[in-house]
UniProtKB/TrEMBL annotation:
This is Lysophospholipase L1-like esterase. Residues 192-341 form the SGNH hydrolase-type esterase domain. GO terms for molecular function: hydrolase activity, acting on ester bonds. Residues 1-20 form the signal peptide. It comes from Pseudoduganella umbonata. Residues 424-435 have a biased composition (Basic and acidic residues). It comes from the Bacteria. The keyword Signal applies.
């Protein structure tokens, strides 16, 4: 696997870019074989080139490749997809796609679900718009933050998840597109900060609710997922993840904060606990977000898959859920009780019915902490319900017709989001003692 030295790669990711290849009014691409007026024709096989500023992504031996250099020895067949990238400035971009006949699903960056199974009848076209957040590791001197860089994890973020940090938008396209238009926009943003159950997981069979949340919002709001596997509030401070978010905050932006799974390891190490350091570090995050004009929202961690002899879900994170609830009340910030919702959800699915909601990286090796696409999708719905119940301003941008009851979850046999081509049997970082 040909991987750049870490220092050089971080400099390349963080360095300013001219974006000279991007027209002042945005990109307009035509994939039909001939360019419509005002569009750039994209021919099949046009590989991404930085001097051109757009093109299809190809497997280059590990860095942003089809499987990101991961072990695929237990991979199963997944749906075909193409990856198309275009250089864009850091921030939010509105993406308008024109779709021809067929069924279409589009994901962005590292497997964020944007459009789900859009069916276009024969002889027709449909246009859809969604918003994607892009970023680099560079931290601007803004909102009281010192300039610097996010301390990325190598090789996870510099190789497997590099599409989240480069200076371009990447689309994972299932079903094809006729046209794509991309232009920068300024919109309210929902920032996510949390652990592996929130972060963009790079390959099947793992997924997180943060990757699915984008599916449930209209193009009047963006979702920026800064969560990372294996981390805690303490890691967020040390690696400057919260600093990166704060440097970008504008009034009206929301920051969802969900940690707990990995914080439990601090108890074993004798350097933390739910009602001491966890609450103190949570408060520090809330204060930083507030000072920058954002709205902090505390989210309790969902439970692991664990049932008692009677088939009732057991609590494994009760103290951290209680600490999160107490903190939200004491600090006067909105609270989403994902812990309680997950227990209702798992109970409704049952001992056997809950298994498809969790990742199965190898036969007989069900991961009872990390979720499958199906489980992540359901938990994202629970978060959206929590956003509505908390009456957050961004709730006005929830897609029309949205409804969810964790006691009556969508059946697994009706779930049809296509899998991504990239697969890994490498378990997400953290929470090793609670598989």
């Amino acid at each position: 696997m040909n991987i750049k030295p870490l220092a050089g790669l971080l400099l390349a990711l963080a360095a300013p870019a001219s974006f000279a290849a991007m027209p002042a009014d945005g990109w307009r691409f035509d994939f039909t074989g001939k360019a419509a007026a005002g569009h750039t024709a994209v021919q099949a096989g046009t590989a991404y080139d930085s001097t051109r500023g757009f093109g299809y992504e190809v497997d280059n031996g590990g860095n942003n490749g089809a499987n990101n250099g991961a072990d695929t020895s237990t991979a199963t067949a997944t749906a075909a997809a193409t990856f198309f990238s275009a250089d864009v400035p850091e921030g939010n971009v509105a993406v308008t796609v024109t779709l021809g006949p067929g069924t279409h699903t589009i994901k962005s960056e590292v497997r964020r679900l944007m459009l789900e199974n859009v069916v276009v009848p024969a002889g027709q076209t449909i246009t859809r718009t969604f918003v994607v957040n892009t970023r680099t590791p560079a931290i601007a001197a803004a909102n009281g933050m010192k300039a610097g860089v996010v301390n990325l994890k190598a090789p996870r973020e510099t190789v497997q998840e590099a599409w989240n940090w480069d200076r371009r938008l990447t689309l994972e396209i299932h079903g094809g597109v006729d046209k794509v238009e991309i232009k920068p926009v300024q919109l309210p943003t929902i920032f996510l900060l949390g652990d592996s159950t929130v972060s963009d997981q790079p390959g099947e069979p793992y997924a997180s609710w943060g990757q699915m949340l984008t599916r449930f919002f209209k193009p009047g709001v963006a979702v920026a997922n800064h969560a990372q596997s294996g981390e805690t509030f303490r890691d967020s401070l040390a690696r400057r993840r919260i600093d990166k978010i704060v440097s970008q905050l504008r009034p009206g932006d929301v920051v969802l904060l969900q940690f707990g799974h990995n914080d439990q390891k601090q108890i074993k190490a004798g350097n933390g606990g739910p009602f001491t350091t966890y609450k103190a570090e949570l408060r520090q995050h809330v204060d930083m977000v507030r000072e920058a004009g954002g709205l902090p929202v505390v989210v309790s961690s969902m439970e692991r898959r664990r049932f008692d002899a009677a088939g009732k879900p057991e609590s494994t994170l009760a103290d951290y859920a209680a600490a999160a609830s107490q903190s939200a009340q004491e600090l006067g910030v909105p609270y989403i009780d994902l812990n309680a919702a997950s227990k209702v959800l798992y109970g409704a699915l049952g001992v056997e019915g809950s298994k498809p909601a969790f990742a199965l990286p190898a036969p007989d090796k069900l991961d009872n902490t990390h979720h499958s696409n199906y489980g992540a999708y359901l938990l994202a719905k629970a978060v959206v319900s929590g956003i509505r119940d908390a009456k957050l301003p961004v709730a006005s941008q929830v897609v029309d017709g949205f409804a969810f009851d964790p006691a009556r979850p969508d059946p697994f046999d009706k779930f049809a989001v296509p899998a991504s081509p990239r697969y890994t049997n490498e378990r997400p970082l953290g929470d090793e003692a609670n598989r």
